[in-house]
Amino acid sequence: MDSLKQLQRQYVQFVKSLYRERIVDRQFVEMQKMQKDDPDFLSGIANNFFDMWESVSHKIDIAIEQKIVDPELYDAVHRVKGAGMSLGVKKVITLCLDFQEHYNTRNHEGCLQCLPQIKDDYQSVKDKLQMVFGLQQQIIGAGGSIPILG
């Protein structure tokens, strides 16, 4: 029982640290609350985000390599932003907004500077979310429930 409480404390501390570090925002905390009825809810939303990334990451890689900024790339970044907003991954959203601002002002160099940052932050967020979901699975596996943050 002590190990379960320790896992739950570790989970709460980790999610709070993501919020404090502005990696996630209030939307993430709200989505986390919805897990009360479905423990897989948040991981399902995250998996949709990860799948969406796989569908657009090639376009971003090509843009970085060939230094091409076009409407197709804008659409790809817009999709990343939209999926990120549904999950509440603040850092990725902010970088996508920066990209869109550069695009709208025809600052192609600014767009190209944002792309590697978007990729890096996406990977960082993915790694951290996988840690969250790993902790959730450990808690459930130990017979506990996932703590809901307020």
UniProtKB/TrEMBL annotation:
Ranges for domain HPt: 38-132
Phosphohistidine modified-residue sites: H78
Coiled-coil parts of chain: none
Location of the protein in the cell: Cytoplasm, Cytosol; Nucleus
GO cellular component: cytosol; nucleus
Keyword Transmembrane: no
Gene Ontology biological-process entries: cytokinin-activated signaling pathway; phosphorelay signal transduction system
UniProt cross-references to InterPro entries, sorted A to Z: AHP1-5/YPD1, HPT_dom_sf, Sig_transdc_His_kin_Hpt_dom
Any one GO molecular function term: histidine phosphotransfer kinase activity
Pfam families on file: Hpt
Keywords noted in UniProt: Cytokinin signaling pathway, Phosphoprotein, Two-component regulatory system
PANTHER family, per the entry: HISTIDINE-CONTAINING PHOSPHOTRANSFER PROTEIN 5, PHOSPHORELAY INTERMEDIATE PROTEIN YPD1
Domain commentary: Histidine-containing phosphotransfer domain (HPt) contains an active histidine that mediates the phosphotransfer.
Function (record text): Functions as a two-component phosphorelay mediators between cytokinin sensor histidine kinases and response regulators (B-type ARRs). Plays an important role in propagating cytokinin signal transduction.
Identification of the protein by name: Histidine-containing phosphotransfer protein
Source organism per UniProt: Heracleum sosnowskyi
